[in-house]
Amino acid sequence: MISLFGKKPSKRDEARATAKAEYEEALNADVATRAGRAIVVRAGARAKAHLDKTFISGAEKADAYDTARALAIARGEDAPERPHADMYQTIKSIKGDLLVFMPVHFAEKVFRAGMQYQLTEITAQDAVEIAQDVADMVSRELQLDQAFVALEFLREELAAEGGGEATEQQEPEQDDTPPPAPDLPPPRGR
After folding, report:
1. pTM
2. Less packed terminus of the chain by CB within 10 Å, N or C?
3. Is the four-CA dihedral 11, 37, 93, 132 of positive or negative sign?
């Protein structure tokens, strides 16, 4: 393949083009067929790994950004530009390292949640909910039968700390439901 300017694309550019094409293939897959479902399920597993790595990347870059920003402010300089999510992540697969694509609007939401979590701007529960909302959107876009679970590692951490499972609403600690009404006789005349 030769580009517009006569240069052969690099291996990195080819890998990115392949990763994006595979994601788009999953978007257009016919889930009524066995082959189409296989493509979609594979894309869902890759998307899950991508979102988890993107969250971690956001958390890792948060500290460096916060330090650089504080130094710039102390020196009277402009703050550096806030880091952004990468649409491509390298994940481990059975066949080795694999480059995976995720549309930037999805990646950016999870990346920012990772940064906010690391900087204690949001709780772990908030981070899980944000990431799961994105996972739900990606799952719908990929036509998965069931949404994949994002940030399982953080959910396990929450459960280990006694925060229970990361659910939409936590169970109340005490049962504050009113007692059931006593059995009354049936109404007369019926």
Report:
1. 0.79
2. C
3. positive
